[in-house]
């Protein structure tokens, strides 16, 4: 790993096509951007613009047709949870495992010892506000709590970068706002680089240092917006003229994409 670029995400001239010949579909077209280490960046765009395809390539679960992807100073060649943590829309917890064992699971795959696994899982659960819930099974947890377990599992190996694909989309609005604040607390404490894919313009602005705006398919970068709102963020900011200006700017980009 290149320690000089630890936590940085760099995408250059990325293209992704599906199919072949006359059936070829271009999902992403010449996408380039950089996320500096320690920044929180959201990606927004119309449905089908390639946001999730982009994230899947960055976490090593899909291959680019052309272009380069580097995370933490090294090319992405496949899943690497030591370097890149990932949280999906669905928590995808194993129902037969407790919260603690779900968080331990990637460590077990690596052959980490039982005591060390438990210590690291408990520390990750503490970080997401689930102290004392390690022995609970998924059916005993609320939707928001399940997503906290999923986040804990994503960070238990202390990756440089956390990739999140609409992790709060299935939650009700109140829980979604609470989870957004919880995520910001985790980010403030860890200073990990976060790339957050979302359909919610309000969520993107509220959470982020920068918002990357993508066009309709084939997905291209049409804007990169700096969010200059002070931190810590508060719900009251969502009704300010500056917040509204940023949301309208993003909407205009998506509406005409």
Automatic annotation (TrEMBL):
Gene3D superfamilies hit by this protein: P-loop containing nucleotide triphosphate hydrolases
A Gene Ontology molecular function term of the record: ATP binding
A family per Pfam: ABC_tran
Keywords: ATP-binding, Nucleotide-binding, Transport
ABC transporter domain: residues covered: 9-241
InterPro entries membership: AAA+_ATPase (IPR003593), ABC_transporter-like_ATP-bd (IPR003439), ABC_transporter-like_CS (IPR017871), ABC_transporter_ATP-bind (IPR050166), P-loop_NTPase (IPR027417)
Family of this protein: Belongs to the ABC transporter superfamily.
Name used for this protein in its record: NitT/TauT family transport system ATP-binding protein
């Amino acid at each position: 790993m290149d320690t000089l670029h630890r936590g940085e995400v760099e995408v250059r001239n990325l293209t992704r096509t599906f199919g072949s010949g006359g059936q070829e579909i271009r999902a992403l077209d010449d996408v380039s951007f950089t996320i500096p280490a320690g920044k929180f960046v959201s990606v927004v765009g119309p449905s089908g613009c390639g946001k999730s395809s982009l994230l899947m390539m960055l976490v090593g679960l899909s291959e680019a047709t052309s272009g380069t992807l580097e995370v933490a100073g090294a090319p992405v060649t496949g899943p690497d949870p030591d370097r890149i943590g990932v949280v999906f829309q669905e928590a995808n917890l194993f129902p037969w495992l407790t919260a603690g064992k779900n968080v331990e699971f990637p460590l077990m795959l690596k052959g980490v010892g039982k005591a060390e696994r438990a210590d690291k899982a408990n520390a990750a659960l503490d970080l997401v506000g689930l102290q004392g819930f390690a022995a609970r099974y998924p059916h005993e947890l609320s939707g928001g709590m399940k997503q906290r377990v999923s986040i804990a599992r994503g960070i238990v190996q202390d990756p440089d970068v956390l990739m999140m694909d609409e992790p709060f989309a299935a939650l009700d609005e109140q829980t979604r706002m609470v989870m957004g604040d919880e995520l910001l607390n985790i980010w403030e404490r860890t200073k990990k680089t976060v790339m957050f894919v979302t359909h919610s313009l309000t969520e993107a602005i509220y959470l982020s240092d920068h918002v990357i705006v993508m066009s309709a398919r084939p997905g291209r970068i049409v804007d990169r917006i700096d969010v200059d709102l002070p931190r810590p963020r508060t719900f009251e900011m969502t009704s300010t003229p500056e917040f509204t200006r940023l949301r309208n700017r993003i909407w205009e980009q998506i509406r005409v994409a």
